[in-house]
Every structure is written in C-alpha cells, then in structure tokens.
Task: inverse folding
C-alpha cells in the first residue's frame, strides 16, 4: 500500500504508544485522524506536531462506551477522504486481582480493549466496501495493538489479559472475514514503559526474562506498524515485538 495521502484513523492517539504510531504514519505521509477520549490537550499537541511536518491531521473526541461515537469518529475522518488505515490502539491497562474484580471493571476493560476494536473494524469495513465495492485487491489495513499478556498471561490481570487474547482471536477471524480487501494484523508489544511503582529489583527481575535485556522503544513498535501497512500479503498474523520474551 502506498501510504502518502491515505487517511488513517488512530484510536487512543493521546496515549504514549498511540502518539508514536500517529507520528510514524504522518512521517509516511498519512492524513491522521487522532482519536482521544479525555486528554484533549495532548491530542491537540500531537496534531500540531503532525501539521508541522506538512501533513493533514485532526483530533476527534470519541468515547467508545457511548453508542454512536465510533460512527461519529469515522464520519469526521471521512471529511478528509475514505479511511484506508485503522490502528486500534485505545485500551485501558490495570491490575485487578480476581478477588477484587467487579463486573463494572470487567465490563469497562472488555468494552474498550475488545468490543471497541471489533466495532471500529466493522464501521471501517463498511466505509471501505462502500467506496471500493468491486475491488479484489487490498485497499484497507487494520492493525490491532495487542499485548504479550494475551499470549503469556500474568496473575492479577485476568480481565486485561483475556481482553488482549480475545483481540488476537478477533484479528484472525476478521482477517478471514474481511479478505481480500482488508488485511488485519496484530502487534503484541512487550514492556515499553516501566510501571511507575517499579523499583530497581522489580525492573531487574523483568529484564532477566527478556533475551534482549531491555524494554522496547516506542519507535520499534511504530516501525513494525509501518512494515505491516506496506506489505499486502500479510494478514491474520500476530507480531511479537517483545525482545524475545515469549520464546
């Protein structure tokens, strides 16, 4: 896929990793629709950075737990052209031991981490099918940001890990259902940033299980996304960018 002038929707663009993904797409020439929920200031700063590159961008507020907000996001994106790239990066990460788990917490995590990417993919596919009704070649790309926690789960994060495992399953199912017009893949990052409460002992223990002996740089995740977007013969795959942790 030639990315220059392609409209890309990046959910969770105000997040740390989401902002790197948006900037990588902008550097590749994409027009970026940067979705955010609450962090308007950060989203608008991101848009300013992208526009400074000479690339079109817009910040769009959407709360994915509110009915109709996903369609609102894509309607806003369509003002710049038909979206042909969707990066599902929005997610909530939190530790919740089983003994403390509430239905409200579980519903919030599953809604944002699993249901929202699926419904966003549906609206995205509707836009693609309306614009390219008879195409038999690849005209759209979806990348879901999963997590190695969906492959090798951790104790105390049962709902989060289940949501990411579900997203990996959804990636494979969507790749079959949306072919051949749309390629659907997942990236499963390992550690990208340290949790704020980690001390040196905890960091050392984590690094001991990573063959690369370091955490990932956000740019390394973004580079993987660009690789997937430019390759039209990869679909239904999960690429672990984890320094070998899942070996």
Result:
């Amino acid at each position: 896929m030639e990315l220059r002038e392609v409209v890309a929707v990046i959910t969770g663009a105000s997040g740390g990793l989401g902002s790197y993904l948006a900037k990588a797409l902008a550097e590749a020439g994409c027009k970026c629709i940067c979705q955010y929920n609450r962090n308007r200031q950060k989203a608008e700063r991101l848009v300013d950075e992208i526009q400074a590159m000479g690339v079109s961008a817009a910040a769009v507020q959407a709360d994915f737990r509110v009915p109709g907000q996903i369609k609102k996001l894509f309607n806003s994106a369509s003002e710049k052209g038909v979206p042909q790239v969707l990066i599902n990066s929005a997610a909530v990460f939190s530790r919740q031991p089983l003994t403390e788990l509430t239905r409200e917490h579980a519903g919030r995590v599953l809604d944002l981490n699993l249901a929202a990417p699926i419904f966003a993919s549906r609206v995205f596919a509707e836009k693609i099918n309306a614009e390219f009704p008879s195409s038999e070649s690849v005209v759209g790309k979806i990348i879901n940001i999963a997590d190695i926690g969906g492959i090798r789960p951790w104790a105390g994060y049962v709902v989060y890990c289940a949501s990411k495992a579900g997203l990996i399953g959804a990636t494979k199912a969507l790749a079959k259902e949306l072919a051949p017009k749309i390629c659907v893949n997942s990236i499963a990052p390992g550690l990208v940033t340290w949790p704020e409460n980690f001390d040196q002992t905890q960091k050392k223990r984590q690094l001991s299980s990573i063959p690369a002996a370091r955490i990932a740089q956000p740019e390394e995740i973004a580079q993987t996304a660009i690789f997937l977007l430019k390759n039209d013969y990869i679909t239904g795959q999960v690429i672990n960018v984890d320094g070998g942790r899942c070996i």
